[in-house]
Every structure is written in C-alpha cells, then in structure tokens.
Amino acid sequence: MKLKEFYRQTVRTLQESGIENARFESRQLLTGLFSLKETDLLSDRIEITPQQQATVENCCRKRCNGYPLQYLLGEWEFYGLPFDVGEGVLIPRQDTETLCEWVLQSCSKHQPERIIDLCSGSGCIAVTLAKYLPKSRVFALEKSEKAAEYCRRNIEKNRVSVTLLQDDAISPSTLETGFDLIVSNPPYIPPKDREKLQKELSYEPEEALFAEEEGLFFYRKLTEVWKERLKPGGGLIYEVGIHQHQAVCDILEGHGFESVGTQKDLCGIDRIVFGKRPD
To answer: Domain 75-276 adopts which CATH fold?
Structure first.
C-alpha cells in the first residue's frame, strides 16, 4: 500500500474512535515509528510494507482503547528536549513547562548553586534545568524504581549532569541539604476526581497522579520536610492543579515563606506557586 493512502486510512481509523487530534496523532505514529518526514506522508512513491502496516494497525487498536500516544512512541518532547517514556512513568506535559520557564527566567542573571527536583519522574524538570543552567548542580529525587530508570535514561539521553537519588521525598534518607532551589510537580489529583479523568490517565502510574487531602497531601508534607533543607533566601516552587493555588499559597505562608506568589500557564490557569525561605 502507498504510504499516502495508509496515512489517510490511519487518520480515518482514529477519527472514527473519537480521537480529537487524529491527523496530528497519525503523523506522530507514522513519522515516529518509521523515522519518516511529515512531507513523506504526502508522497505517492513510498510503499509501506505489510509488517509496517501491521505495526501501525496494532498501535491504532491500542490508541483507540485509550492507550497513550506517548507510550506507543516511547519518546516525547518536553521544552525542546527528547524524553523516553513508557508504562510506569508520568508523561511530561506542557503544563510543567510553565515551571521550567519561570525558573529559567528567574535565574537568567544568577544561576543557583544547588537545585533539587522532588518526585522527579521522567526527570523532565531536572534535565531541562540542568541543560539550560549548566553552572547549577542539579539533583533528581524519585521513589519509583521504574520511573527512576526512565530518569536515568533521560539524563544520559540529553547528556546533562544530574545526580539521581532513588529515595522517598516524604521521608528521605539522603543527607543532601543546602539547596538554593527546590522544585516539584508532585501528585495532586484528588482521588474523588478519578472518574472525571481522560481514559489515557488510567494507564499512567497512580502514585504519580493522586494525592489525599483534596490533592494537597504532598504540598503539606514536602513543605514540612524540605523547608529546612533550603538555604536562607532559597526558593520553593510547585506545580499545582486547577483551583489549588490559594490553598498551596496558604501552606507556604503557614510555614513562614515570604514573597509567596503564583504564575499562570498558557491557558490562564494559576499553575505555579512559589515562595522564599526568609533570609
């Protein structure tokens, strides 16, 4: 079959299953799986082999059942960098780029000496900060063995210097302290919202998504556990869920943080909460 015809067939298959961005996802599947250019998809001269056709059709069946596109591809872009992803690790999302953008802008004139990313997952935050703040010593802390392995691979993939700590952010055994900056995108979805979520999220690790206490458990515990590991004047920055910003601001202020504020994402949602430990 001609690639052009098969591309159109793949788009129809995904559209009929209710995939909103069927054309985009079809392009991603075909170009990602077979190292093609998008312009190749419009060519009448390229033939797709039966084996390639079977591979894509199998991926389409999974995708139509809600399996994440990113897991099918095995790689996803975050802040212009490639990240390996798969079952057992949270998929990097554009929302989290807001946190990286805020940190990089804030540190454009003075790079922090020591940064740690808690609940690091794929390492997308830690790797991005290490890439663009090369003078900073960056740590990534992750409890899950599967996620930590993806983090390790992404550190190597992007050729950055990040110290990976496989540890529990809530009750850490590491003695590392004296951080200028602590960042985290912790689990923050309230369990009661489980039924409202997209089907794709059911394939991602629950421990990276859900948090008790209306989604605020990790903000409370991380702030309590890690505030003393910040240098005086050091910053704590969280990604937060929709409508959580005020509650997280209150948590930081309750622990004595100063200059507490928020930053909106591209959709106008308060996505980042930050504060400074008193000097």
So the answer is: Rossmann fold (3.40.50)
